[in-house]
Structure formats: structure tokens, C-alpha cells
Design brief:
This protein is of the alpha/beta class and about 400 residues long. It is built from 15 helices and eight strands. It has three domains: about 240 residues, Lambda Exonuclease, Chain A; about 55 residues; about 30 residues, no CATH class. A hairpin with a 2-residue loop joins strand 3 and strand 4. It is extended. Bound molecules: iron/sulfur cluster.
Length: about 400
């Protein structure tokens, strides 16, 4: 029975290879956390304790909350926690957590809005009718506000604030609200609440019944697509620095190996030498080609001028001749222009479009690769498919 969590889907969307390492191969790496996730976990745990005590009619003081947080930080910290931004220390991050909690506490004290009905609530939501595909529910805090109104609260410790429209499209809490809708008979409305604690900011969003039905369908389709994926390509992005699999990822493994080498061995690395030589020769080639193209263009213009001056169309060299022909060509509007759309409509209306349009094999290959059609249609395509391997080298700055 496939079960997917929000983070599992995000992992695939961010980088299919990272997803494969984490959820298919289940590779264990030495560094289990980045300092950002470590900080997030400790802040979550401290807030969970604050509200758990509150459930038992005990209000922690701010000092107690911070002491609890600092105790967790000290007990859980491991030297293997990765700090990507080298200019900051563990202490800087610990203090961020303190500031987040302190601001949160002052803003929300005495924490008496609504009734707490769940802390770190976990369950599963069936996405399909047979209940085969499940979405893992994990709600930081679930509140009953009375009169059938519920609130799903989520704490975010990240260092960027989303736009409202991003939250209005957010999948995670919206799926959780589907679960809330299912759980409570008196359900009327759910408010989705994000606490961006690093900014001391609370943001919210609502979903209609129709939006939630669409979301359920889209999430189900997404999970099916992930499940049937056969290729797990690396997606290099700015997030790679925070990826715990960077040391084994083929896109970065060599750099990680180089960083571990002493200076004298570093420059002798065969891969490094190959790249430096390749880039040098390619640079020379590009320069020669550019110079040659410039010369060729000048000669072309000189030949055209010679023909016009002498009234000839062929110019003779010692072993070759060059024939200069002037011709006129017809142009039609380029792709993605309004004129092009108009032209297509006209050709369609006179029944001539199929006579002048060609099969786009690149689009077909993309459809097959991304499984954009149903299986029967894809099978029809597969009969004509052949696969070849080739290599493409691209140079970029590190
Ligand atoms: S390092 Fe980047 S490309 Fe490699 S697996 Fe991680 S996220 Fe993907």
C-alpha cells in the first residue's frame, strides 16, 4: 500500500535522484541533518512541549521554554550536523531558535485561543476510492475554534517568507484539511495557519470544497506518476548544498573528493587535469572559429561586391570557383506569435493544416519520457521507439 508524505513528494519534485537515494535505496549517510533542519526540529519540539503543558493547564514561562529548547539543543547536537553557510556557527543558529521562540511566546501568550485537539497528530488520508494510496498526515497543532471551525497550524523556521499566492497553492496543509474535514461531523471550515517564526509572522489561507477535490485528484495523479517513474535524473540546483547525498551524487562526488585532497594531490587529480585541458583547447577552438567566421564573412561581402562591380556571377580561383546567386526567400511568422496563431487558424479553416505541418518527433519523445498520455496510447508509440546513447559535454563555472 503506497503511502506518501508531503516531504516525500517535495523530494521527488526537487530532485528525482535525491528521492531515489532517500526513499527507494534508503541510503544511510553519515550527516543525518543540516543545521537548518536541526534548528527546525528543536523549535518544533519546544513548541510541542509548550502546548502539551497547556493541555494539562500548565503554562510554561518564557524562561522555561528557552531552557527546554537549549537542553534539547545540547543533548541532540552532533558534530555531523552540516553547516553549509560557513560564516555562521552552531551558536548563531541556536540563537535564531531562541529568538523565534521568544517572539512567538510574546505574541501568543497566554495561548488560550481555541481548544487544542492534536499535537504532532499523525494519521493517513486515503486519496483514492479503494484506499490504496495514502497521504501521511502530520499536523504540528490542530485546534478546535468552536462552531465547526478548525485550524491547522504549522511552524516554519526557514529564512524566507512565501508570497500569499504561494500559500494559497500550498499542498501540504490543504491535504491535511481534507483529513480534518473527514474527521469531524460538525466540520464547517478549516483555517490553514503558518507561523513563520523567524519573521514573527502568522499567515493563513482557506480552501473551498471544489479546490480540495481538485487537490486530492492532483495529488493522487502526482503520486502515481512518482510510483511509475523509471528514470531518476539528478536536478542540480542551489539546494544541492543542503542535500545530504551530495558526497555520493554523481553530479558532485568528484568535487567532494577534490575538497578532501591535500593541495599537492589536488592539482594532480586526473579528472581535474582533463577538465582544465578540455576547457583550454575548447577555448582556443572557439576563438579560432570566431576569427575564421569573421574573416569568412568579410570575404563573402567582398565577393558579392566584386560580382556586382564586374557584372559576373561566378568568380574563379586557382583550383576552385565560387558562384554567387542572389535569391529571395519567403518568410512566415515565427513560433509563439499572434500572426502564427492566425495563420494556423486559417489553414485549419481551409482544411490544409495537415498538408503543411510535420510530425514533431521531439515532442513525441517528450510525451513518451514523461508518460503524458494513457498507457494504451503510449504502447502504440513505443512500437516505433528506438533508444540510442550519446554524450553531451557542457562547461560551466563551479
Ligand atoms: S546533490 Fe543535488 S543533484 Fe545530487 S542528489 Fe542531491 S539534490 Fe540531487
Amino acid at each position: 500500500m503506497p503511502s506518501f508524505s508531503h516531504s516525500k513528494i517535495v523530494a521527488f519534485e526537487t530532485c528525482p535522484l535525491q528521492y531515489k537515494y532517500a526513499y527507494i535505496d534508503r541510503i544511510k549517510v553519515e550527516a543525518e541533518d543540516t543545521v537548518e533542519t536541526f534548528l527546525g526540529s528543536r523549535v518544533h519540539e519546544a513548541l510541542e512541549k509548550l502546548y502539551r503543558d497547556k493541555k494539562y493547564e500548565r503554562l510554561m514561562s518564557l524562561e522555561e521554554l528557552l531552557a527546554y529548547y537549549n537542553k534539547l539543543w545540547k543533548e541532540e547536537w552532533k558534530d555531523s550536523v552540516v553547516i553549509v553557510k560557513k560564516e555562521y556557527t552552531q551558536e548563531n543558529y541556536r540563537k535564531i531558535g531562541e529568538r523565534c521562540l521568544s517572539d512567538y511566546y510574546k505574541r501568543h501568550k497566554p495561548f488560550d485561543r481555541g481548544r487544542i485537539i492534536g499535537l504532532e497528530t499523525t494519521d493517513f488520508l486515503a486519496l483514492d476510492e479503494e484506499g490504496k494510496y495514502k497521504f501521511h498526515i502530520r499536523i504540528d497543532r490542530l485546534m478546535d475554534m468552536g462552531n465547526g471551525v478548525y485550524e491547522v497550524h504549522d511552524y516554519k523556521t526557514g529564512s524566507s517568507l512565501p508570497k500569499q499566492e504561494e500559500l494559497d497553492q500550498d499542498r501540504q496543509l490543504a491535504v491535511y484539511s481534507l483529513w480534518v474535514r473527514q474527521q469531524f461531523k460538525d466540520f464547517k471550515k478549516v483555517r490553514l495557519v503558518w507561523h513563520y517564526v523567524a519573521f514573527d509572522k502568522e499567515m493563513d489561507s482557506y480552501r473551498t470544497k471544489e479546490q480540495l477535490a481538485t487537490l486530492r485528484k492532483e495529488t493522487f495523479e502526482k503520486i502515481k506518476k512518482i510510483e511509475s517513474a523509471e528514470e531518476f535524473l539528478a536536478n542540480v540546483s542551489g539546494l544541492c548544498d543542503w542535500c545530504l547525498y551530495k558526497g555520493i551524487c554523481p553530479m558532485w562526488k568528484h568535487e567532494v573528493q577534490l575538497e578532501e585532497k591535500p593541495e599537492n594531490e589536488y592539482l594532480n587529480d586526473p579528472g581535474l587535469k582533463l577538465v582544465d585541458e578540455y576547457v583550454r583547447i575548447k577555448g582556443e577552438l572557439d576563438e579560432h572559429r570566431r576569427e575564421a567566421e569573421e574573416k569568412l564573412e568579410k570575404l563573402k561581402q567582398a565577393l558579392i561586391a566584386f560580382c556586382a562591380k564586374e557584372g559576373v556571377s561566378a568568380v574563379f580561383g586557382s583550383e576552385n570557383k565560387i558562384t554567387v546567386k542572389q535569391y529571395e526567400y519567403i518568410k512566415f511568422p515565427g513560433k509563439n506569435t499572434e500572426e502564427r496563431e492566425e495563420l494556423i487558424k486559417i489553414l485549419q479553416s481551409i482544411g490544409k493544416l495537415s498538408k503543411v505541418s510535420d510530425l514533431d518527433v521531439y515532442v513525441l519523445a517528450k510525451i513518451l519520457k514523461n508518460k503524458e498520455w494513457d498507457e494504451h496510447q503510449l504502447d502504440l508509440l513505443r512500437k516505433f521507439e528506438t533508444r540510442e546513447k550519446s554524450h553531451r559535454l557542457s562547461i560551466s563555472k563551479k
